[in-house]
């Protein structure tokens, strides 16, 4: 089936700095107008050039002979710009002579999975996959994640693709650009395959019982993202009751709350749903279902450090002594829990889901066994699942534990999960403060917010080195019985500051050290930090 086409030519194109669209190992930009100060950067021509750049990169990577056409699968989340960008991506891929397979509404983990599935009847495996998503960012944003059977692409790959895209876009500028029909587009319901595989995984873990979750009441909050499938397509076939599930319908304006397991309003919504419906468990996903969290029957949130502790307990039962790789803002109590109670090893690494995945893979390559890489944000990746960043699979692991424990007669309900994190020391004070960078302030002196933020971090590092009360660790700074980490956001002109301390007084001392070190950077809005540090 051919994609929709138009003969309308676009007479002029704006010049674009493609490298500014890089967001670590993703591409992000503004796809919808209407927000002041945020001009559209992901236009259809830009998107088409990026897709063609990926196609060229893939052709070089695969080095196949002319007898076989490469195949690229394309999926998207619920954003209002999804269809427009999917069509542009399809044109870009097809223009390079590759076959296009559209999945429509899909999840990020399903897109990676499509490069592993072997079933020619559904045009799998795909040689490459593209997920159109901007995770939990506002409705006007969108972006792209890229996969091959080796996993998600890294920063250098993204830079390569964007450089190729810039060259292709230059041809558009020189020769003119028009929207042309894509003749080699097919459509497949791949989500049906992906969800069936999740159902099989739970049944297998429960000893091949058809309905291992029968009698469990589990509510799902998809936040109007792409995760609504989990209730009807995964939980119900396993026997679970899903009444009270909410915001399952895709709506790219996200009218109820941000689809983000780290967002307080989102977690409050799923907690309330659990309590109102007297459910055994609640599950919440982000927009593209690569992050997740849970809530037990008492309303206790199982996210951030608690989710990591829970997954660590499950994985260490299966792989005693293994190394758990986490991001840098995990608590000291979590380290003690993993190492002293569970008998594992906690390896803290820098933030970024691709960073923790790559670090776990690296550790395995040098002989240090690791089976779990997980961030406080809810990104979780298991070696058994091809290091796939999959929020739905994390929740399947929890379902597996519930089902297998009941099948063995050892316990029923979410208390099984809550008991697994018993003994986890919670930090007395744990806060995240956002220090914004005013991009219009003259102190930037023509620099990008990223360059300015890097200068702030460099200056802070120099300040710490000369302060005897602070100790710089590989990923954060310790002092006054706690620690802080100031980093630069991948997405926005913001420096998030995480502080954990044994008391509010000690947390304030750490905050004041940061405030003193960055006070000369006049483009910083430190109001959140100033308010926190007030006596």
Automatic annotation (TrEMBL):
Annotated GO MF terms: phosphoglucomutase activity; phosphomannomutase activity
User: Boundaries of each Alpha-D-phosphohexomutase alpha/beta/alpha domain copy?
Assistant: 24-166, 197-299, 304-406
Q: What class of enzyme is it?
A: isomerase
Task: Give me the segments passing through the membrane.
Answer: none
Reactions mediated catalytically: O-phospho-L-seryl-[protein] + alpha-D-glucose 1-phosphate = alpha-D-glucose 1,6-bisphosphate + L-seryl-[protein]; alpha-D-glucose 1-phosphate = alpha-D-glucose 6-phosphate; alpha-D-glucose 1,6-bisphosphate + L-seryl-[protein] = O-phospho-L-seryl-[protein] + alpha-D-glucose 6-phosphate
A Pfam family in this protein? PGM_PMM_III
E.C. number = 5.4.2.2
What does the UniProt keyword field contain?
Carbohydrate metabolism, Glucose metabolism, Phosphoprotein
Gene3D superfamilies xref list: Alpha-D-Glucose-1,6-Bisphosphate, subunit A, domain 3 (3.40.120.10)
What cellular component GO annotations does this protein have? chloroplast stroma
UniProt xrefs under InterPro entries = A-D-PHexomutase_a/b/a-I, A-D-PHexomutase_a/b/a-I/II/III, A-D-PHexomutase_a/b/a-II, A-D-PHexomutase_a/b/a-III, Alpha-D-phosphohexomutase_SF, Phosphoglucosamine_mutase
**Cofactor needs:** Mg(2+)
GO biological process entries: glucose metabolic process
* Assembly mode: Monomer.
Q: Which family does it belong to?
A: Belongs to the phosphohexose mutase family.
Record protein name field: phosphoglucomutase (alpha-D-glucose-1,6-bisphosphate-dependent)
